[in-house]
Amino acid sequence: MKAIVLKEFGGPEVLRVEDIPLPECGPDDILIRIRATGVNRADLLERQGLYPPPDPQPRYQIPGLECAGVVEKVGQRVTRFHPGDRVMALVSGGAYAEYVSCPADNAWIIPEGLSDVQAAGIPEAFVTAYDALVDKAGLKVGQRVLIHSGAGGVGSAAIQLARQMGLHIATTVGSAEKAEHTKNFGAEIAVNYHEQDFVEEVRKWSGAQGVDAVLDFVGQNYLQRNLSVLRTGGVVVVIGTLSGAKGQIDLGELLKKRLIVRGTALRSRPSYDKMHLVQEFQEATGALFETGRLRAVIDRTLPLDQAPEAHRYMATNKNIGKIILSVSQG
Ligand SMILES: NC(=O)c1ccc[n+]([C@@H]2O[C@H](COP(=O)([O-])OP(=O)(O)OC[C@H]3O[C@@H](n4cnc5c(N)ncnc54)[C@H](OP(=O)(O)O)[C@@H]3O)[C@@H](O)[C@H]2O)c1
């Protein structure tokens, strides 16, 4: 099969298509013939040698954390799927390829009416957003949330989910164009952080109360300010560290307001943990995708061999929603 194998680490040019054997399909696995795969920030780090796959180390290091496609083969203990089923899946690597093998429990049937490209934009962004809003922040209808990087893949998913949960949503973005889009996704205010201070704007919007939760992808540069916009008992969910992973906080504020800072990561979780999350997510959202109330926002689709171009584009921060690689079988 054709796959993008990392034989060296470096710039986008190291993403080259190679011919390698098909992955093995274990007794609890399914082999998926991939039609489309999502690009994630983590792939850019992995390409630079900064985000190794979890153990056991694969024979070929292939980026790609999610895909949509068709079940080609099922392992002997798998009863949920059959060859020919259209599925999407969360994988811990290997999706920049024509085929990937993954635990059956980390895949689910593509909701009625969704294209392969739309489906490929769902697993990583939406499951991460669901985990953060529901499991990590425990948000309830009527509460307030600040979602940073609201036009990104995860941000655009989180805003839509938050709207379905009946939350009040503020977001931060890097341009006026992104601000418009995030309001269409469901944000009540979109703060362009190049021009405005989000702490000040969120205080005005929330009537000085602050927010119940912050979903953060920025890390270092925002950590203290995230604490400042929280109301008493609020929680910051750290999902990414785009500006750096080290930070200083005022522990006095943490104590006084009884705040929580907690992290989350999907890739490194054991398969059974992902299984529970995937099942919960699927039950909560399947119908919402079928009726179009939730949708993956797709910025653009490029063929697999243009993965270098996809990475260069993501690094410019210009994408609104997901970048997808389409995989045509040769
Ligand atoms: N924990 C997990 O399991 C998990 C899962 C998925 C993703 N993630 C992480 O979540 C983050 C977002 O992923 P994504 O797929 O949504 O990425 P994305 O689509 O590329 O969006 C990221 C956006 O963040 C903003 N940004 C980038 N660098 C920034 C900086 N230094 N300061 C402030 N804003 C910055 C940019 O938007 P603006 O122009 O609007 O600033 C950029 O477009 C990444 O760090 C990713 O690794 C974590």
Quick recap:
It is built from 10 helices and 15 strands.
Counting helices, strands and paired strands, the structural category is: alpha/beta
Rg from C-alpha positions? Answer: 20 Å
Residue share in β-strands: 25-35%
Oligomer: single chain
- Second-tier CATH architecture of the largest domain: Alpha-Beta Complex
Number of domains: 2
Helix content: 25-40%
Shape: globular
Beta strand count: 15
CATH superfamily of the largest domain: Medium-chain alcohol dehydrogenases, catalytic domain
GO molecular function, one term: NADPH binding
Protein name: NADPH quinone oxidoreductase
Organism: Sulfobacillus benefaciens
Keywords: NADP, Oxidoreductase
Verbal overview:
It is a single chain. Strands 3, 4, 5, 6, 7, 14 and 15 form a 7-stranded mixed β-sheet that branches. It is globular and about 60 Å long. Helices cover 30% and strands 25% of the residues. The protein starts with a strand and ends with a strand. It is an alpha/beta fold and 330 residues long. Helix 3 packs across helix 4 (153-164) and helix 6 runs parallel beside helix 7 (223-229). It folds into 2 domains: 2-121 and 297-326, Quinone Oxidoreductase, Chain A, domain 1 (Alpha-Beta Complex); 125-263, NAD(P)-binding Rossmann-like Domain (Rossmann fold, 3-Layer(aba) Sandwich). It is built from 10 helices and 15 strands. Residues 40-42, 124, 128, 149, 151-155, 173-174, 178, 217-218, 221, 239-240, 242-243, 264-266, 314, 317, 319 line the site of NADP nicotinamide-adenine-dinucleotide phosphate. The site of NADP nicotinamide-adenine-dinucleotide phosphate has 27 residues, from helix 1, helix 3 and helix 4. Pfam families: ADH_N, ADH_zinc_N. One of its GO terms (molecular function) is NADPH binding. This is NADPH quinone oxidoreductase.
